[in-house]
Design brief:
The chain contains three helices and no strands. It is mostly helical and 79 residues long.
Length: 79
């Protein structure tokens, strides 16, 4: 599937799949917090651990979102 087709699937899922939308919202919140941390000149040790954990959680959410998109594509004849 080309990039435009993948974007179409993601857009469709954002509007029609509650689980996908919730995962995307969580991903967006984590991304916002990571941006807040990256704007700081210095991170405390606690913030450094938070940053690592946020990145791991964000990646896990992205993986789950991609799995939903892949299931949708496979179930709807998109390749």
């Amino acid at each position: 599937m080309n990039a435009a087709g993948a974007q179409d699937v993601k857009h469709l899922l954002l509007h029609n799949n509650d689980q996908y939308r919730q995962l995307a919202e969580q991903h967006h919140r984590l991304d916002n917090r990571l941006h807040e941390l990256s704007d700081k000149h210095y991170l405390s040790p606690t913030e450094q651990v938070e940053e690592v954990n946020l990145k791991k959680r964000k990646l896990a959410l992205k993986d789950r979102m991609e799995a939903i998109a892949r299931q949708y594509r496979d179930g709807n004849g998109h390749s």
